[in-house]
Amino acid sequence: MLILTGRRTLRIVRFHVIFAPAVKAVFLILAFLGIAGLWPAILADTGATLLVILNSPRLLRTSKD
User: Fold this and answer.
1) pLDDT attached to residue 2
2) Is the predicted pLDDT of residue 31 greater than 80, yes or no?
3) Cα–Cα distance between 15 and 19 in angstroms, integer?
4) Is the distance from CB of 20 to CB of 52 less than 8 angstroms?
5) How many angstroms separate the CA atoms of 49 and 16, rounded?
6) What is the DSSP string of 9-40?
7) Predicted confidence (pLDDT) per residue in 4-16, tens digit
8) What is the end-to-end Cα distance of the chain in Å, rounded?
9) Which of 1, 25, 14, 2 minimizes the C-alpha distance to 52?
10) pTM for the complete prediction?
11) Could you give the 3-state DSSP secondary structure of residue 56?
């Protein structure tokens, strides 16, 4: 049971660690190409942060299963 909980937790954390920087990287590339400006990048970063925060309660459910 604990091993499954740990694996599920690691999967969720890995997703968070990959997702947030990936969004930043995409907008960095778009900014260098002149496609995205500062405000879309700020909104995307804020949105990515909110998605990670809203996805985090899944970590609490891992200990109850």
Assistant:
1) 81
2) yes
3) 6
4) yes
5) 9
6) HHHHHHHHHHHHHHHHHHHHHHHHTTSS-HHH
7) 888 888 998 898 8
8) 9
9) 14
10) 0.69
11) coil
